[in-house]
Amino acid sequence: MVLKVFFPSCCSSADSGILIGRWISEQNSAVILAVVHFPFIPVQVKQYLGEVQRVTKVSVSVLGSWSNSKQEKEESLSEFLEDLGTIFSHEPWIQISKEGDSKFWSCSTLQKHSNNPQEEEIILVYYDQRKVMLSHLHPPLDTAAQGAEDASKLSAIFGTVARSRVLFMTDRYDEGPIKLTHWQSDGVEASIIVELMKQASVPACMLLTFLLSLVSGICRSRVLKFWPLSFLWSKLSICEQLGHRLQHLQVISSNRKAQNQTQLMRKANIFVSLLIDVALGILLMSWLYRKNRIGHLADTLIPVADHVAEELQDLLQWLMGAPAGLKMNRALDQVLGRFFLYHIHLWISYIHLLSPFIEMILWYVGLSACLGLTVALCILSDIIALLTFHIYCFYVYGARLYCLKIYGLSSLWRLFRGKKWNVLRQRVDSCSYDLDQLFIGTLLFTILLFLLPTTALYYLVFTLLRLLVVIVQGLIHLLVDLIDSLPLYSLLLRLCRSYRLAAGVKFRVLEQQDGKPLRLLMQINPLSYGAVVQTYRLPTYSCYPRDSWASLCKKLFLGELIYPWKHKGEKQN
Fold it and tell me: In the structure, how many helices (H) and strands (E) does the chain have?
């Protein structure tokens, strides 16, 4: 049998005493937590360990003795340490002694109550107690049986040190009957700023909770459920983003304590994401209101809209002629061209009607950047959607007309083959048609077939324009989702204190000599940056349609409408 003793490196220079920790019988391992110095009263030690065990729910006991021969040179010390095994009855009784300035330590076990004592091979593993206590061991991403078993063994060791936090709250300056050596024995690690922030966070969270409950009550009111407001709330990106941030603020201001490390990291990630988002928004707002950039932007917006309208008029004039040498149906071509030109004329009149108020609108819109950069980006996306509304109308008209002709041609093609679509059974069945039905079907099929190229050309041009707008809006929403979902606190923690996010451990051999225990150093392997993002990624409010290329081409061919994004609970057409 191999006995593994996990010894804290901070106790290597401790005075002689007894070792307290947890014995893990399933792994035949001993996790040393602290050293109790001489002199002490055994009854008080047992009472103290009982209180620690009651608070931490960890079976802490006396595992053995520790001898530092550099400070204790009495011959009776070894006999006294062996006699302690009769007072603190633990099997096996571990004896570790440091031999002066030598690199090698002696480690042995005593089994007084065993009939057949067997000599065990001992492995002495040093670990950094502070890092192990503060770190959180993550399960492996792969589900291999061996990896899961190793992770469960390591989690028992990490959990023992993490749950024994109460044991580390006493230092050498405490006037108690028991003196301990652990990673905080020289003084409890604390920060005045952190303690002040904890005290100030309680009233701040109460005030924020009250304000958020008031705002959420207004949002859940029946007024917003009526048609115009409910439609705008579901379609505008700014409303969805504000609702998403409202949920984040409710999570942060909640007075419920985090149940596990995952919930704590989620709260921290949301808090840091909000801070960085608001900071970037304030920087953007300060840049916009400096040197009258809002006025320059408003003066530029109208000429750009006029230029886009002129380009669309030139495009329609080109389509109404002979585009690329193609011969179109002149009557339908003229009707469609004039119809779209009239819409452009209406759009130009609408833009010029709003031109006196554009600077004021942009000035108030710029103030919304103080709520965060994501809010400003969502407003930009909505502004782009409003400024390109005429392109969207052109795309819808062309798509509906093209879709109507495609489905009409497919239905008439089934008529030629003596088939029909059964609506009840959702399948194609055989059907007999008379001569009049076949004649009318032939005429309609011929008309639709010869009108299809003209309609398809308009549909293709406006689909490309619509896709261009969709790509721009998609890039904006991808940036918003990146800011919303990126676990910034976890990434900063991985960069500055990588041991806090542990993926596993590695062992480095320190010394090895015949007759002496093997000495290993346990080091923490941090999570990779990709694993950090995958583990702590925050949910976003919008879900993008992830259609395959075949599905997308099918939708374009059939003339089905394509939307840039799809909100929660909304089905894509």
Answer: 17, 15
